[in-house]
Design brief:
Layout (H helix, E strand, L loop, with lengths): L5 E5 L7 E13 L6 E5 L14 E4 L8 E4 L4 E3 L2 E7 L7 E5 L1 E6 L2 E6 L29
């Protein structure tokens, strides 16, 4: 961590209200029992946070623009390694197993560093039941 890094803060007192701040100061010592690092970010109270209320913070340690991300449930482990099942554009209703190199995970999503390109369509729900060349029915249950 370093001064100036972006931090997103949220309190259970105001669910869904996210406040953006930047790290202002990092204390040089690490807690002996908790191994915690004290980081200070100056924040304007958005109006409904109370003193001494719990606040959860997420620090942005790196940003990758144009990263390819898929739902975490899309990536499954097979003897070949970590794979996704790509909708085969050549054969309607079939999937093709594709070895990928996964990256960072966050909030139910996983970065794919190698193996997929933007716009590729992968199976999410039920991917762990599939094998290379399996036939599927495509349903769009979302509006």
């Amino acid at each position: 961590m370093r001064e100036g890094q972006l931090v997103y803060l949220e309190s259970p007192i105001a669910p869904g209200q996210i406040v953006e701040a930047r790290i202002d100061q990092i204390r040089p010592q690490i807690g002996a029992m908790s191994r915690a690092l004290v980081v200070i970010a100056r924040v304007e109270n958005p109006g409904n946070w109370r003193p001494e209320a719990t606040v959860e913070a997420r620090v942005v340690v790196e940003q990758r623009h144009n990263a390819v991300v898929v739902p975490l449930i899309s990536v499954v482990t097979r003897p070949a390694g970590q794979v996704v099942y790509l909708l085969d554009s050549q054969v309607n209703g079939e999937v093709r197993q594709l070895i990928v190199e996964p990256g960072e995970r966050q909030d139910g999503w996983i970065e794919i560093r190698r193996g997929l390109k933007a716009g590729d369509k992968v199976v999410a729900d039920g991917a762990h039941y599939l094998s290379d060349g399996a036939g599927i029915d495509i349903r769009n249950d979302q509006p």
